[in-house]
Amino acid sequence: MTDHSVESVQQDPSVVEQYDAWARVYDWFWARYVNQTLPVLQRAADVQAGERGLDLACGTGELERRILEEEPRVHLTGIDLAPSMVERARVKLAGHPSVQFEQADVHDLRFADASFDVVVCANTFHYFTHPESVLAEATRVLRPGGRLVLLDWCRDFWTCRVMDAVLKRVDPAYQTCYTLDEMRELIATTSLHSRYAFRYRFDGLWGMMVVEAVRPQSV
Predict the structure, then answer these.
(1) Cα(153)–Cα(180) distance, rounded to whole angstroms?
(2) Which of 54, 93, 108, 172 has the most other CB atoms within 10 Å of its CB?
(3) How many CA atoms lie within 13 A of 132 on its CB side?
(4) Helical residues (DSSP H) of the chain, grouped into ranges
(5) Secondary structure of residue 119 in the 3-state scheme
(6) Mind listing the pLDDT tens digit for each residue in 12-67?
(7) Which domains are delineated in the chain?
(8) Is the dihedral of CA 29, 153, 64, 35 positive or negative?
C-alpha cells in the first residue's frame, strides 16, 4: 500500500451512494455505451492465458464476463467501492473460479507489489478523487513488464468539454475528465512508460481515449 495519509487515499463517498443505486439497472440502462467501450478496452488489454488481471472500479463485472468468455484461462480480480456493484458482479460471474470481486478503494490497493500482469480501468477515471494516488498504486501492483490500460472520456472532444462543465456543477461525485495530453502527463508522474494512445468517438456525443503504459523491467 502507498504511504499516504488516510484522507489522501479516500474516494469521495458520494460515488458509492450513486453507484449503489445504479447497480440493479446499470447493465440494461448503459447497454449501448458498454457495447461501444468495453470491447475497445478488451482488445487493447489483450489479456492472455495464464495472466493475472486487475480491474479498477469493475462495476457489475461485465468486462470480466467478456474476457472470460473469450479466454477462460486467465485470473481476474475486480474491485469496486460500491457494495451493490460488487454483489452484482459476484452473482453474474458465479461459477467462475478464476475471478474474484472485492469491495475496495482504488486509491489504496490491498495487494502485494508486482501482483498483476495487467491493470485496467474503464469509464471511471473521471471520478477518482486523487488520480495520482490511483496511478501510483496501479504501478506498484504491476509486475515489471506489466501494463496499465485506461479507457475514459476525453476532453479533447467539445461534447466532453460541455459534459465536464455541467457535471462539475450538478454531480457531487464527479471530478474531471482529461485531455489525452493531460492523461499522458499524469502517467508521466509514475515510472510507467506510455506505449500508445488513441481517441475515438461514437453516437456523436461520446469522445473516448485509450492509453496503455508499461512498467519497465527495472526501475
Answers:
(1) 9
(2) 54
(3) 8
(4) 14-22, 26-29, 31-45, 62-70, 83-92, 131-141, 158-170, 180-187
(5) strand
(6) 677 777 777 878 899 999 999 999 999 999 999 999 999 999 999 999 999 999 99
(7) 7-214 (3.40.50.150)
(8) positive
Distance, CA of 56 to CA of 52 (rounded, Å):
13
What residues in the chain have per-residue pLDDT under 50? Answer: 1-8
Q: Which residues pair with 79 in a beta bridge?
A: 56, 102
pTM: 0.92
Check residue 219 and give its pLDDT: 56
Separation between Cα atoms, residue 162 and residue 68, nearest integer Å: 36
Q: CB within 8 A of 9, min separation 6: which ones?
A: 2, 105, 107, 108, 130, 133
**Res 35: pLDDT:** 97
Hey, how many other C-beta atoms are within 10 angstroms of the C-beta on 110? 11
What is the separation of C-alpha 83 from the centre of its chain, rounded to a whole number of angstroms?
17
Helices vs strands, H then E, count in the chain: 8, 7
Kindly state the cell numbers that stand for 8.
489522501
Distance (Å, whole) CA 135 – CA 22: 26
